[in-house]
Recover the amino acids of this structure.
């Protein structure tokens, strides 16, 4: 299969994407929303397009420190401030609801303790998902030890997983910097789903390699590892593309037609699953071959 | 094959019944199948979500759970008094920065006035007993209403609602006028006895939240710790007073950590957009499956329809509280549920190419794809479980739960439903047409 033969080209392509993503993450950071940082977010909608200048003036009079106002949709605004008390929230809300001119669509307040809890749990859940997946892969492939030992399947899966979460995180670092897109709790959820999906994809290819290795042994044919992996990739190629395609269809529909609250969520998944499909075909299995070659060179 | 035909008919009947159940149980109580409407979370229904931290620093560590449960009961009662339908009050323990934080989570569907909601929960009626200052007696008698500030006219006795063990609603057997009977605890009983003994003839006013409620005059010592408030209140007011006195003081002080209010219109919009997205993605995926996989594709669409019905029925029966994230998980799972079918069909195609007869190819396809399906779905199940465990909000818990149900049922439908239907079709022969409808992709390899 060409994929294995030209693996270096795919490595380089991925390396560039990863470098650009990491640059975004380290240069701009992730634009954390109130879920993590704490604060208050109010979304209001009025009967006519909002007068931003007037809103800014009224908010300044409220004495609530620094704030940001962004228009959303045709008649809506989103206001972000520090954490407001219920009285402050009420009086800020009245700016928009006075004279029945508008309604408060939602108001979220997150205190520092909740933000800290979410941050901590989010990091832990990512760690645990990665650990659990590696253990799972190592266990599932424990019977496959030649020519590449089973923990290496796990290690390769990790590389693929990191690839798949760095890319969407990088895209959101740029989106955050240039378009003010914020990272919320659902973003982390989406990353975890990407992890699950990506490994799902990688496993199907590995599983084929496992099967073909077994066949190879029992038939006493000695194809080399590179050929077997290459065959496995090409055998599962259509399936990988088609499965991802149906999932991407569902996500694209969710992104374009679904509710605003899950739009960014769908976008993370769209990017992550695309990256995941790419990595399971063009990174995961080729890396197994690279590892095997490296091993051989060392033993020689 | 006769067997699988029977199973296929059974599955289709079950799916039809399931669809009927999902549809009819939504309308109302008239359905023979009972009333199981979908349950929607606050983000789809509108409402207020509040998170409090309880201060347990003064409670012995062994008694924290008991105190938290008492707190939950108190808050639950308080909310019920104010007539919010289907509120949710739960306690949760979180470990933040090495410290244990006891959280109290309150969900109030339909309540969009955050300030009012916070008032309802945080309201602690303060009941006080105050003696009229001797110097003020004439003022009160003269004006017969109390206009001066309470502190100028009354002195504190130290007797408050804290010493109350219970309050009861009573009606005068003759006039039917409502009155409230207060029963003090032991400490309060002694204090009340002393106050009444030493101040016979003076007015002992009862204040609720600084407002005089009743202004009885002490006629004799009351040693049994029972006091009756007769005021000019309606039976409803008296009832509310009794309730708020009984559920008066919170067992633990609480402070607000965060709040979330979602307007009904936003929720409605999110719900209809989710449903639209779900239907649309189902249609597009079905078209893709049929165009690419032809006859097996049609079978996969049936399996997907059964999958959808099965999931919706589970959502109703459990019941699963659906949030926008949960619906997103469901839509995502529709896309992913096809995966097992695709694995099987691709495998089947390979077996056909190897020259196996059709029926054997179908069986081999299912058999060989199973390991991949099992292993790959297990990784999603692991993700869902970890996600559920670490979820900090109902939104994410909802996502994880729906995702989990989706993955598990998709394994079932792909293996059982697709397989049964495909075998039950009982297509035989090797002619061009058969090869075409079982072939796939563009062209006919």
């Amino acid at each position: 299969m060409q994929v294995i033969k030209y693996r270096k080209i795919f490595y380089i392509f991925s390396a560039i994407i990863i470098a650009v993503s990491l640059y975004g993450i380290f240069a701009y950071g992730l634009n954390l929303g109130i879920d993590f940082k704490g604060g208050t977010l109010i979304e209001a909608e009025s009967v006519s397009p909002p007068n931003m200048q007037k809103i800014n003036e009224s908010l300044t009079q409220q004495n609530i420190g620094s704030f940001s106002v962004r228009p959303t949709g045709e008649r809506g605004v989103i206001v972000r401030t520090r954490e407001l008390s219920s009285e402050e929230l009420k009086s800020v809300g009245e700016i928009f609801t006075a004279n029945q001119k508008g309604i408060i669509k939602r108001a979220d307040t997150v205190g520092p303790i909740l933000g800290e809890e979410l941050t901590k749990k989010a990091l832990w859940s990512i760690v645990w998902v990665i650990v659990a997946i590696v253990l799972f892969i190592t266990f599932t492939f424990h019977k496959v030890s030649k020519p590449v030992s089973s923990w290496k399947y796990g290690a390769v899966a990790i590389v693929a997983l990191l690839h798949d979460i760095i890319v969407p995180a990088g895209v959101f670092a740029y989106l955050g910097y240039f378009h003010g897109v914020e990272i919320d709790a659902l973003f982390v959820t989406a990353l975890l789903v990407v992890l699950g999906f990506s490994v799902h994809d990688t496993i199907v290819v590995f599983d084929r390699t496992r099967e073909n290795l077994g066949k190879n042994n029992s038939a006493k044919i000695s194809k080399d590892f590179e050929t077997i992996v290459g065959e496995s990739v090409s055998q599962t190629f259509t399936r990988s593309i088609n499965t991802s395609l149906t999932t991407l269809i569902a996500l694209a529909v969710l992104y374009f037609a679904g509710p605003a609250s899950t739009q960014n969520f769908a976008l993370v998944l769209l990017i992550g699953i695309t990256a995941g499909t790419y990595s399971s075909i063009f990174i995961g299995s080729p890396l197994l071959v690279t590892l095997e070659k490296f091993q051989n060179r060392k033993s020689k | 094959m006769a067997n699988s035909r029977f199973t296929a008919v059974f599955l289709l009947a079950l799916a039809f019944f399931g669809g009927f159940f999902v549809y009819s149980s939504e309308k109302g109580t008239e359905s023979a199948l009972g009333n199981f409407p979908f349950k929607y979370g606050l983000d789809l229904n509108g409402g207020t979500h509040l998170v409090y931290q309880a201060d347990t620093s003064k409670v012995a560590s062994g008694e924290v759970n008991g105190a938290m449960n008492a707190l939950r009961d108190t808050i639950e009662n308080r909310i019920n008094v104010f007539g919010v339908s289907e509120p949710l009050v739960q306690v949760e323990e979180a470990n933040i920065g090495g410290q244990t934080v006891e959280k109290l989570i309150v969900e109030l569907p339909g309540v969009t006035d955050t300030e009012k909601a916070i008032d309802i929960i945080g309201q602690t009626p303060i009941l006080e007993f105050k003696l009229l200052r001797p110097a003020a007696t004439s003022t009160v008698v003269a004006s017969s209403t109390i206009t001066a500030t309470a502190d100028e006219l009354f002195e504190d006795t130290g007797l408050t609602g804290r010493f109350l063990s219970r309050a009861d609603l009573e009606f005068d057997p003759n006039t039917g006028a409502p009155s409230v009977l207060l029963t003090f605890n032991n400490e309060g009983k002694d204090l009340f006895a002393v106050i009444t003994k030493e101040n016979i003839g003076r007015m002992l006013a009862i204040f609720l939240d600084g407002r005089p409620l009743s202004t009885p005059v002490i006629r004799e010592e009351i040693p049994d710790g029972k006091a009756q408030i007769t005021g000019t209140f309606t039976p409803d007011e008296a009832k509310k007073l009794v309730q708020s006195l009984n559920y008066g003081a919170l067992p633990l002080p609480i402070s607000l950590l965060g709040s979330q209010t979602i307007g009904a219109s936003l929720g409605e919009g999110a719900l209809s957009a989710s449903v639209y997205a779900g239907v649309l993605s189902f249609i597009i995926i079905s078209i893709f499956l049929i165009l690419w996989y032809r006859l097996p594709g049609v079978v996969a669409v049936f399996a997907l329809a059964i999958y959808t019905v099965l999931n919706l029925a589970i959502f109703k029966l459990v019941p699963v509280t659906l949030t926008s994230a949960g619906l997103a998980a469901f839509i995502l799972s529709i896309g992913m549920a096809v995966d097992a079918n695709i694995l099987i069909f691709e495998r089947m195609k390979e077996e056909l190419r190897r020259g196996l007869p059709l029926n054997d190819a179908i069986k081999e396809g299912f058999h060989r794809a199973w390991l991949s399906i099992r292993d790959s779905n297990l990784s999603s199940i692991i993700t869902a479980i970890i996600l559920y465990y670490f979820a900090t909000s109902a939104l994410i818990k909802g996502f994880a739960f729906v995702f989990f149900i989706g993955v598990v049922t998709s394994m079932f439908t792909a293996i059982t439903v697709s397989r049964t239907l495909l075998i039950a079709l009982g297509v035989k022969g090797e002619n061009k047409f058969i090869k075409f409808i079982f072939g796939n992709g563009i062209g006919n390899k």
In short: The radius of gyration of chain A is 24 Å. Chain A is about 70% helix and 10% strand.
